[in-house]
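Box 3.1 — From sequence to structure: Transposase
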Amino acid sequence: MQGTDFYEQILGLTAPWFVADVQLDMEAQQVDVFVEHGEGETFCCPDCDRQLPCYDHTKSRKWRHLDTMQFATILHARTPRVKCPDHGVKQIRLPWAEKNSRFSLFFERFAIDVLLATQTVKGACSILGISWDESWHILQKAVARGKDRKQSKNLPRIGIDEKAFRKRHNYVTLIYDLDKSTVEAISDGHDTAAADACFDQLSDSEKQSVEAVAMDMSAAYVKSTKGNIALAEQKIVHDRFHIMKLATEAVDKVRRSEQKKLRAEGDDRLTGTRYLWLSGQENLSEKQQERFDAAWKAELLTGKAWAYKEMLRDLWVHDTPAEATTFFNDWYKRVIHTKLEPMKKVARTIKERLANVVSYCTHGITNAVAEGMNSKIMAIKRRVGGYRNRDNFKTAILFYCGGLDLYPQ
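Predicted structure (token representation):
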């Protein structure tokens, strides 16, 4: 088989296109494939598909294709233009590349696979043999392509959460599909306007399909959800992990206050025990459990706060909101009559939004998907050294977590 025939077949070229020449540059380790079309052929106007004769050609262009063995493969061609009576002079669509692309369709598909597998633009560059800017351009195009193709769908269970872009309270807000673990919308900030901007990215039918919304106790997110989702008061579920985090932080505040007093008296019983109180007992090693038992027997305020925190975990094991409400009211009475001010503050916070805490018993959702996504996003940031540009950060999130149709066709 001649080289021209070989490349025609692997490129999938059909009439009027054919491979006119193939040149091998051993020094540059490159294969140059020259593609032409037959004389007198007609081409479609890209806007109306009218068959028209070739008007002229652009200057010869290059497209990076998949490697041939260890050799970089470059396609060369002059793109025909047609003169449409309705749309003027237009470049035709090429069968091997998208408009304004410097890469073949096959190469872009492979590059997207590599970017997804490595989860880092820098890592993809070394495999693909292209620059960071070129890799990023492919990623950006893939996201734009995916967003254009995105169709409205049902989103019965969603979550809304914030993600730090940089330090000093620089955030983005994200809406997640909890069933498919994908990011459906993203906007700057973490206030009501940011949440509204996220909801605006959903279609009316998508918002109407929402049956439950998981979130933390952010007043801004509650306000936005009520303004965008019908009957939101019955659909909001305050995330149990967020609530337990508040309770755990309260235990730590009690520990720090008590440890300060004990140290002043020369008592170091709480020194080095922070992790013991913050972790669930199921996560402690045998040695840590022994230390915990010794601290627990001392009957300190920290131990009492920890016990109330552990008791609160049972709020989410009840079958109905009524049962959960009864449990909480009993827990609340116990806590509110103690001297554990940080725990009392948590109890009051939960009581204010209790209906949307015990709604877990109805909807059974948490923002665990959001926490998993946050870990994935942080890992991506670490691998590439962070994103200085907020728009690039959002683009990367949609590429890796958006569940988009990224591939060229």
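Summary of the box: The longest strand covers residues 71-84.
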